[in-house]
Amino acid sequence: MTIGNRIFTKVERAPRELVERFADLPSSNINDEMNRLFCMHDYIRLLNPDKAKPLLGTAITVRVPIGDNLFFHQALDMAQPGDVIVVDGGSGCNRSLAGEIMLRFACMKSLAGIVVDGCLRDLDGIETLEMPVYAKGITPQGPFKFGPGEINTPVACGGQVVFPGDILVGDKDGVVVIRRQDASEVADAAQKKKAGEDKTFNLMQNDFDAYTA
Predict the structure, then answer these.
(1) At 137, which helix (H) or strand (E)?
(2) 212: pLDDT confidence band, cut at 50, 70 and 90?
(3) Is the preceding peptide bond at 26 cis, omega within 30 degrees of 0?
(4) Cα distance between residue 197 and residue 29, in whole Å
(5) Gap between the Cα atoms of 208 and 206, Å rounded
(6) Can you spell out the DSSP letters for 19-78?
(7) Cα(16)–Cα(14) distance, rounded to whole angstroms?
(8) For residue 113, how many other CB atoms are within 10 A of its CB?
(9) What are the φ/ψ torsions at residue 176 (nearest 5 degrees)?
(10) C-alpha dihedral over 129, 135, 138, 143, to 10 degrees?
(11) H/E segment holding residue 191
């Protein structure tokens, strides 16, 4: 039986021009336009907010046993520039699933980010990275490397189901998941919402300026 111990190498990613339509859109605007059902739980937090670029990319998914990162290593080797590695670590925090060495390797490969439902380590190093790194927590305890695991199957991360090729957008508020097949419609709606909010902010500022003149 290979279920629970398998790797799929083919991922149908959204076209890059479609992914880029979500650049500069707040996660809140995007999630509002999906009826507020597609944000990861608040415990998935950005670990390097002072340095990180916004999270924007397509998902490579990994499922690992709690405290084991063998398949996480394999996913790092497989991932392409612009990918976000999304790890279902069972929300366990007794052991870390990666540290500064693995994360710096991800940066060298120009990955768009890492999202882990579990723990990482080497926070001092993580805080210096420009690649956005999200996780449930931090522990110095290292991982096992026995397996099994799965790569590029649907996973659970922060209370959301993530499919390979989904678009992930993240900022200091958190991470939102967009289905590839829904992305064009969602981008249209979120861009319209942001434009409406920007107009409101401008009107507020104009009214305030007139009041205080």
Answers:
(1) strand 133-138
(2) confident
(3) no
(4) 9
(5) 5
(6) HGGGTT--HHHHHHTTTT--BPPTTSEES-TTTPPPEEEEEEEEE--TTB-HHHHHHHHH
(7) 6
(8) 27
(9) -120, 145
(10) -100
(11) helix 183-212
- The helix (H) or strand (E) run that includes residue 175 is strand 175-178
What SS3 state is found at 166? coil
Q: Assess contact for 13 and 169: CB atoms under 8 A.
A: no
pLDDT of residue 81: 98
Centroid of chain to Cα 187: 17
Hey, what amino acid is at 9? T
Taking only the tens place, the pLDDT of each residue in 142-181 is 999 999 999 999 999 999 999 999 999 999 999 999 999 9
Phi, psi (rounded to 5 degrees) for 115: -130, 120
Residue 116's alpha-carbon distances to 71, 128, 165, 206, 212, in angstroms, are 13, 18, 16, 43, 48
114-124 pLDDT, tens digit per residue, is 999 999 999 99
Amino acid at 186: V
CB atoms within 10 A of CB 23: 9
Could you tell me which of 11, 42, 12, 47 has the C-alpha nearest to residue 27?
Answer: 42
Q: Are 174 and 55 in contact (CB under 8 A)?
A: no
Task: Report the predicted TM-score, pTM, of the whole model to 2 decimal places.
Answer: 0.96
